[in-house]
Amino acid sequence: MRSFLFVPADSGKKLDKAMTSGADALIIDLEDSIALDGKAQARQSAAAFLREAMAAPNRPYLLVRVNGLQTGLTDADLDAVAPVKPDAIMLPKAEGGAAVTHADAKLAVREALSGLPDGHIKILPIATETAAALFLMGSFAGASARLIGLTWGAEDLSAELGAHANRDAENRFLDPYRLARALCLAGAAAAQVPAIDTVYVDFRDEKGFRRECEEACRDGFVGKMAIHPTQVPIINEVFTPSPEALARAQKIVDAFAQNPGAGVVGIGGVMYDRPHLARAQRLLAQQR
Ligand code: COA
Ligand code: MG
Fold first, then answer.
1. Whole-angstrom distance between the N-terminal and C-terminal Cα of the chain?
2. Is the per-residue pLDDT at 288 higher than 70?
3. Whose alpha carbon is nearest atom 46 of ligand 1?
């Protein structure tokens, strides 16, 4: 999955529009885009939408962003949406693998009550939204079989750090957030799950957005979150490997297959060793 589009759960119009946006996944938001006194209404709206959308042909992957475990709102969120079986929940302000294990247990109870198989609903945590979370980025391996990836956030983190900004005048992330981004990549790799890049809130800045997609793809992220439908086609384009990249990867895999004992091969005057093989295999696997 490449593109994950956020949609506030209380907007029927945006929910409908999102279904035809071309996004690989929709994140129906019960958290930051919903005011506190609108939570109950938003839960009902999310459940009603999911009841229909889950049955739609060729539908996107459907996640619900619940409120964080610190808020006391998570249980009511899960009570409302678990019975309609979203593919996954997004867990914001997650502090390490322990938070994922905690959410796993909460989901297991709801699955039992709704007659769903255990482990049906997956978890995608936002792993860098508090200062404490940054020190727990190596703890996601083995936290839960529900873990499908790791993503990161800079908005809540900058509020917690007391920063006045998280990007510079060119819309590039400042150091504390580049650290969070790098930790997300490393944490995801250590847990053997894909890393998904964070949002770009300046949704009219197409050039800056495309640059950030390209840099994320270059560095190892396999997809990116969007807040506006216009961002979706750019994500899909940038994170779809080019035919040339796929052909290059296939050549590397083929060269090692033809030399089973080899630790290193040469193709077209360039050296490829085991890490290159692993990267090529991963790129080809993404296509399946
Ligand atoms: N999903 C689906 N549709 C969306 C959308 C989204 N995330 N964001 C905008 N749209 C729709 C609008 O409703 C509008 O539809 P219309 O043409 O039928 O009227 C169209 O796309 C163009 O929207 P635009 O006028 O450019 O933006 P806006 O001012 O209506 O909305 C935001 C701007 C930021 C409020 C909106 O993009 C949004 O709600 N984004 C998601 C916010 C969110 O979930 N944040 C939490 C995660 S950080
Ligand atoms: Mg937030």
1. 11
2. no
3. 33
Q: Where are the domains of the chain?
A: 3-238, 243-285
Is-contact 129 153, C-beta < 8 A?
Answer: yes
At 285 the pLDDT is: 85
Residue located nearest, by CA, to atom 9 of ligand 1: 228
**Residue 237 CB partners (closer than 8 Å, separation 6+):** none
In this prediction, what percent of the chain has a pLDDT beyond 70? 100
Q: Phi, psi (5° rounding) for residue 25? A: -145, 145
Q: Does domain 3-238 have CATH number 3.20.20.60?
A: yes
Q: Identify which ligand lies nearest to the alpha carbon of 12.
A: 1
Chain centroid offset of residue 18 CA: 17
Q: Are 39 and 30 in contact (CB under 8 A)?
A: yes
Query: How many A from CA of 131 to the centre of ligand 2?
Result: 13
As a whole number, mean pLDDT of residues 50-61 equals 96
Ligand 1 atom showing the smallest separation from residue 26 Cα: 1
Ligand at minimal distance from the CA of 65 is 1
Pocket of ligand 1 (CB under 6 A): 5-8, 13-14, 17-18, 29, 32-33, 199, 227-229
Distance 157 CA to ligand 2 centre (A): 8
Scan for tokens 């996954």, then name that residue.
88
What is the per-residue pLDDT across 115-131, written as a single tens digit (0 to 9) for each?
A: 999 999 999 999 999 99
The residues pairing with 202 across neighbouring beta strands, listed in sequence order, are none
Half-sphere exposure (CA, 13 Å, Cβ side) for 255? 22
Instruction: Tell how far CA 62 is from the center of its chain.
Output: 12
DSSP 119-150: T-SEEEEB--SSHHHHTTTT--TTS-TTB--E
Specify the ligand 1 atom closest to the Cα of 153. Answer: 48
Return d(Cα 147, Cα 168) in angstroms, integer.
33
Helix (H) or strand (E) holding 272: strand 270-273
